[in-house]
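Task: sequence design from structure.
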């Protein structure tokens, strides 16, 4: 199934006629991350994790009445959905990006030959969005936030900005055809688990400073390997909350007795030179706290774009 997605996506991305190129509307700005949607098998445990540990505000979900939003700010949140009866081990449903015009983005992708829905959806909060599949079959939403989003009351939130997503990737070339070729994402940083191997490739959104991190499998199998577990996949499909100082944020969690379940023993510096600290929600999705800026010189690649701001 993954192979078919990759082949079809590469063909769709490269097949743009001269006429279509001449009549394609301009791409609307992609300004920031909107949200990540994940599944839960225990709504009560998920609520405790996201409201107490993360400190997000629980809100109704204008997109799905069965879901819940755990908001970090007026325009960024984690969407938690009930686990479908036929779900496999993956707990991520989709990622989503904020754009200045959902309808404009839909028309842009359609004009470029990408498969899009016939119309955008509209939420009770005034937001608009639509969903497409990326080259490997991952659901991606483009969200136009409400014109006047309501402020969020989350005084204990551990951070109010999602600075990146991580996503399991098997073909960097296929994903680049979509994210870089069609959408204009740009390189930010890359690294690997060992010398000569590239496992992490960060692509920054074209009109902001937040990014998508390809979590590349060194030996892609065109499917889901039998050795892949829910926790290991949840560690790959992750989101990261920006911090001025992860060590300081860690102390806030410790002093508030907010660290529980599966988590790192302490903050550490990653290959990008930034402090990070990982926690896992009750269904094993990784929530990473990460510094906005590097503390030491990064390994492998230097940064090739500006960091997110505090």
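Answer:
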């Amino acid at each position: 199934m993954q192979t078919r997605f990759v082949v079809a996506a590469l063909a769709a991305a490269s097949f743009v006629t001269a006429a279509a190129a001449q009549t394609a509307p301009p791409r609307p700005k992609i300004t920031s991350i909107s949200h990540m949607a994940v599944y839960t098998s225990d709504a009560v445990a998920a609520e405790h994790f996201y409201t107490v540990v993360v400190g997000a505000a629980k809100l109704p979900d204008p997109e799905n009445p069965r879901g819940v939003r755990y908001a970090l700010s007026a325009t960024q949140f984690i969407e938690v959905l009930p686990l479908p009866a036929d779900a496999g081990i993956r707990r991520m449903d989709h990622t989503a990006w904020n754009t200045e015009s959902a309808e404009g983005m839909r028309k842009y992708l359609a004009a470029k030959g990408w498969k899009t829905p016939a119309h955008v959806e509209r939420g009770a909060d005034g937001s608009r969005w639509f969903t497409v599949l990326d080259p490997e079959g991952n659901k991606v939403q483009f969200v136009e936030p409400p014109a006047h989003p309501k402020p969020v009351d989350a005084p204990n939130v551990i951070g109010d900005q999602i600075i990146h997503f991580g996503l399991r990737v098997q073909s960097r070339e296929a994903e680049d055809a979509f994210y870089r070729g069609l959408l204009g994402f740009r390189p930010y940083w890359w690294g690997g688990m060992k010398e000569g191997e590239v496992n992490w490739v960060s692509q920054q959104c074209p009109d902001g400073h937040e990014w998508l991190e390809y979590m590349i499998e060194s030996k892609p199998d065109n499917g889901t390997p039998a050795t892949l577990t829910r926790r290991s996949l949840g560690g790959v499909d992750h989101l990261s909350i920006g911090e001025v100082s992860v060590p300081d944020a860690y102390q806030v969690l410790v002093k508030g007795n907010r660290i529980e379940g599966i988590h790192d023993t302490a903050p550490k510096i990653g290959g990008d030179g930034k402090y990070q600290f990982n926690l896992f929600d009750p269904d094993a999705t990784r929530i990473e706290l990460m510094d906005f800026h590097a503390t030491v010189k990064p390994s492998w690649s230097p940064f090739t774009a500006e960091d997110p701001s505090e």
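Residues 162-291 form a domain with the 2,3-Dihydroxybiphenyl 1,2-Dioxygenase; domain 1 fold (CATH 3.10.180.10).
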